[in-house]
Specification:
231 residues, globular, 2 domains, Cytidine Deaminase, domain 2, 5 strands, five-stranded mixed β-sheet
Length: 231
């Protein structure tokens, strides 16, 4: 169909078997094999007296998801992060922004989108994400619109389309992670997508697909033949 690893349950790095530690995994299997939590553990290096490195990593990731373009001062509001660690995280975020904006990326299949966002698959809460596209189907931005509860997220059309209007996107792809291992779209997922599609028609912004995913697999409305535009 073309368009027209779980977080480790550990307290400290030393508690993990040596071959499964994040930095060792980078050497043996490559950096792409690490989950977001493991990557953040590598960046932070250690926890503190109040929080172990895994807990602090999850908190930082959650904060970044909720605060687009988190600055150093904003990161410093995370209790226990500290000046040095906040500086490292802010530097990594800025470098990522600079590098990701250097070339346009054209997405032609659902798997392209999944590979771009699959790192959200290990999050413990649902993240509703929009991928904004221009007329050439090149990605303009990837945005976390809302972060929900453990097993559901709430999203409104105004939240989904506000940034799309601002960036003058011509189409978008919706996606959200399922914290459980079950990625089959629910009736509520389908109903929401059709509501968003109707809103998009008024605005002239087409919904191309909705992808439901976890860190291992995904289901694409387009590939599965689920009608988004239905009377």
């Amino acid at each position: 169909m073309n368009y027209t690893m779980d977080a480790q349950g550990f307290k400290t790095i030393r508690e993990i078997p040596e071959g499964e530690r994040p930095r060792e995994k980078i050497q043996s299997t490559g950096v792409s094999a690490l989950s977001d939590s493991e990557l953040m553990c590598c960046i932070l290096g250690s926890g503190n007296k109040e929080k172990d490195v895994a807990s602090l990593s999850r908190e930082v990731l959650d904060f970044i998801s909720r605060h687009e373009g988190a600055s150093f001062n904003e990161l410093m509001t995370i209790k226990g992060l500290g000046n040095a660690k906040a500086s490292v995280v802010a530097s990594c975020l800025e470098l990522g922004r600079r590098l990701s904006g250097s070339t346009a990326r054209r997405m032609s299949q659902p798997v392209d989108i999944y590979n771009l966002i699959r790192h959200y698959g290990d999050r413990q809460q649902e993240h509703f994400i929009t991928i904004l596209l221009n007329g050439a189907l090149e990605i303009m931005s990837v945005n976390v619109v809302t972060v929900g509860l453990v097993n559901k997220t709430l999203v409104h059309p105004r939240e989904v389309f506000s940034l799309a209007i601002k960036e003058r996107a011509t189409s978008l792809i919706c996606a959200h992670n399922h914290p459980s291992s079950f990625v089959e779209p629910s009736d509520a997922d389908i109903e929401l997508t059709r509501l968003l599609a109707k809103s998009g028609e008024i605005l002239g912004i087409k919904i191309l697909d909705h992808i439901v995913f976890n860190s291992r697999t995904y289901v694409s409305f387009a590939e599965k033949g689920i009608e988004i535009y239905k009377e």
